[in-house]
Specification:
Elements (H helix, E strand, L loop, with lengths): L5 E6 L2 E6 L4 E7 L25 E3 L5 E2 L3 E4 L2 E4 L8 E2 L12 E5 L3 E8 L10 E9 L5 E9 L3 E2 L3 E3 L1 E2 L10 E4 L1 E4 L13 E2 L11 E2 L7 E6 L5 E7 L3 E7 L3 E5 L23 E6 L14 E2 L5 E11 L4
Antiparallel strand pairs: 1-2, 2-3, 4-14, 5-8, 6-7, 9-10, 10-11, 11-12, 12-26, 13-25, 15-24, 16-19, 16-21, 17-18, 17-20, 20-23, 21-22, 22-26, 23-24
């Protein structure tokens, strides 16, 4: 296995540490706040175990594919399964479990790349994927992903960071999501195919809602609007994080099943239930099995692009 490399980038009031293993955002700090705003661990080995998705790029098909079956151009692809007979984040050897190559870096920007060969994980290829982390002068964290393929394939990677603006889980946090609809799921968290209105349900987070939310969240929200826009806001009395993206979906996971023991987090103890909140901009889950969902097909000659920005607003500054 290639050796892991770690790179630090900084600008304005923000500093980030990025690992080539999983193209992982392994730490994110904001001047004036004691803890990393993203859950992390000083134990690099933990990222190969209980912290396998923490801050990583997951995919190339993020989220769940029912029974690992993905119809493509008249043929059923059979993806590696790893969760109750379903494929989650492209199985046990997805992007989060690979050592990426460092393409370039500067004090404010780092770009990593990875090549998946034809057939890896059950997907046609080769598939070339790149991710760039950058920090603006105002401390905004940007994540941009691109991908190209030589064969018709599927592509829907996502950033899988656990956020806590206090370092102490969701207590005192509030969440707002600009989505009029969500995707109901079955007991295995596979979408039923329905695109349901949030109105009158516990999934209506269009107004600022204290966390933990009234309902357990491992849910895709069908975001309003198109193009780059603010779609969600996580905030405390001291700090707000505005999430801006160009994707049509946002998977939100409240970490209700989280338990990293014995691996310890940055605060010196294992992470337990509700330690952080995952907010994954992406296309919708199980899309190959739901023709009415936004397509995750990538064709030769086309370029997959996804842009996300996390903007931080201090409440003590007018």
């Amino acid at each position: 296995m290639a050796q892991d490399t770690q790179v630090t980038i900084a600008n304005g009031t923000s500093t980030a540490r990025v690992m080539t293993y999983g193209a992982t955002l392994a730490e994110f700090r904001l001047d004036g706040f004691d803890a990393s705003l993203i859950l992390c661990s000083p134990d690099i080995k933990a990222y190969r175990g209980p912290l396998r998705y923490f801050g990583a790029i997951v995919g190339p098909i993020a989220n769940r594919i029912a029974a690992g079956r993905a119809p493509l151009d008249g043929t059923d692809l059979h993806l590696d399964v790893n969760e109750n007979g379903n494929a989650l984040h492209d199985g046990p050897d997805g992007l989060s479990q690979r050592v990426w190559s460092l393409r370039s870096n500067s004090p404010q920007v780092v770009t990593l790349e990875l090549s998946l060969q034809d057939g890896e994980g059950g997907l046609p290829g080769p598939l070339e994927i790149a991710v760039t982390y950058d920090i603006d002068a105002d401390g905004t964290l940007g994540i941009e992903m691109t991908a190209r393929t030589e064969k018709l394939t599927f592509c829907n990677p996502a950033f899988h960071g656990y956020w806590s603006l206090t370092g102490n889980g969701p207590a005192e946090h509030r969440l707002t999501i600009d989505a009029d609809h969500y995707l109901p799921t079955d007991a295995a968290l596979i979408p039923t195919g329905e695109i349901a209105p949030v109105n009158g349900t516990p999934y209506d987070l269009r107004q600022s809602t204290p966390l933990p939310a009234p309902v357990g969240l491992d849910t895709n929200f069908c975001l309003n609007g198109e193009g780059m826009r603010e779609v969600a806001r996580l905030e405390t009395d001291d700090l707000a994080m505005a999430l801006e993206t160009d994707t049509p979906g946002l998977q939100v996971y409240d970490a209700s099943r989280l338990n990293t023991a014995p691996a310890k987090g940055h605060h010196g103890a294992p992470y337990g239930a509700h330690a952080g909140l995952v907010m994954e901009p992406q296309l919708w889950p199980d899309a190959p099995n739901n023709p009415d969902f936004p397509s995750i097909t990538l064709r030769p000659g086309a370029v997959f692009r996804q842009s996300t920005r996390f903007r931080f607003i201090r409440k003590d500054i007018p």
